[in-house]
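To assess whether the prediction recovers the assembly geometry, we first specified each molecular entity separately, as shown.
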Amino acid sequence: MNIVVCVKRVPDTGARMELVDGGKAIETRNLGFTISPHEECGVEEAVRLIEKLGGSATVLTLGPPNAEDQLRDSMARGIDRGILLETDGSEWDPAQTASAIVEAIRTKESQGNRFDLFLFGTESADSGDYQVGIRVAHALDLPCVTGIKQLEVQGEKVVARRESATGWEIYEVMLPAVLTVKEGLNLPRHPSLRGTMTARKKPVERLHPNRVPAGLELLRLKLPPEQGAGAEMLGQGIEAVPRIIAVLEELGVL
Amino acid sequence: MILAFIDHDRGTLNLLCLQMLTFGRGLAEKLGVPLQAVLIGCDPAPLLDELHRYGVSSIHLVKHPWLEDYAPEAWAKSIAQLIKSAQPQVLLAASTERGNEVLAHVGALADLPMAANCVQLNPGPRFQVLRQRWGSSLLEEAELHGDPKFITIAPHIIDATEGKTCAEPALETFSPTLDEKDLRVRLTAREETQSEGVDLRTASVVVGGGRGVGSQEGFQLLEELASVLGGAVGGSRVATNNGWRPHSDQIGLTGNRIAPNLYIACGISGAIQHLVGCKGAKHVLVINKDNAAPFFRRADFGVVGDLHEILPALISEIRKRRTQTGLSSVKCG
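The predicted structure of the complete assembly is given in tokenized form:
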């Protein structure tokens, strides 16, 4: 089975964000970067599937040159190779991103590669657009199931489950297919030291995608007003217990 | 005309849909155009009255033998066809799993952009939207190009309220043209799960734990406190990523959104990922060893100290008081 898993590089934000670049971006100088959480589970699932069924897995991202870090991180967990759709780091809207991914996949297919499964996160942690996987599926004329928290490959078929208000919804689709996944699908492994060493030697292909016009054009970011004036401190250590009890009573909890 | 996608499961309305209709009604009034709805795959009769009270003037009932249960591509293709004849200026949906999914499919079919999780719309020559990012920790002003506009409305930005009663909504049947291929993704089965204990999402007291809890066993203390308070236990992403709690217990951007009367957060620093999940809590009590933990700034009450010392003392004090109250009530009786 040949899998492509698409990931997004996002800042590892702390408690409060700051804006730079006239409000076009968030300040990331002092922040680390990670793979957006849903996609981290996509990477883990891809690795588990090829461990079980054989085949190979490719990790793909669109982002600045440093997004190679997230490709290496994925490869350290067991993905075989990476593709970086390199940008200048500015924001690409979901349709632009999908178009670049489709272009890359078509290029790989024209070189004789065949893919059975494309994994995406249902929505990215930062922009939360809910549509890149769906747009790629339409362009490639593939079925797409979104919001998946359990999946099982049965021969040529995938049984995918997503949560509903009362339990699970079950979908069955034939491969090849696009699946968008959510955190909780699995518990991602941490990269091993050996994995990290091996990942350095794995191939990363850099492509420069065409940028179609934006449909959802970012004008500026804004911070919502900060809530709350800070906590009323009830004390230190176990000495605070009587005041905690008083608060519990006041709130009707006790 | 504003066209609203009605998100329902076998005829049961998703409640966020009523918030979206309230938002849509406001937009329709502002633009001086009608609010209409598209309803797929269910008997409209039980919903008519409610949709009417929320200001829907006309319902497009999409009918096709293949549309009895949810099938995202087929639902989206039906809407894409309806749009060509009905010509709405804006297609709205609630930002639910299905709302976002169906509108993204419609956007892909029409080759037009879609904006998810919007909180404000400014129609005009340049149609601007204000939308949530990072689970509402950041807002984005964007221009949405193309027509019609495909937009989902973020949850809980408006209360669902009924509008003025007007004439009965007109019911128009629309018959889409579908291929078998449009049904390649459809809901084929359901499994109902029995919930055990107090549901985290609806609990009135939630005790949450993060890095400071330190281990899976450490959560025993939180379980005890939740148990004496009749609450539920949750965890931060650190707790679920370390395997200390199942992911279904996660409170945060990629987990559950909680709305208890009291949230007691133990050993959680207060990263955005987590704050997004507990924004709905009425009161927050933070217990953390680090007096500089950012969570204190977002909390109502704070205690600086080690949860491993404070929780046992607190639990034993609550138990002691319960016993005393129990005794005194016996005396009174």
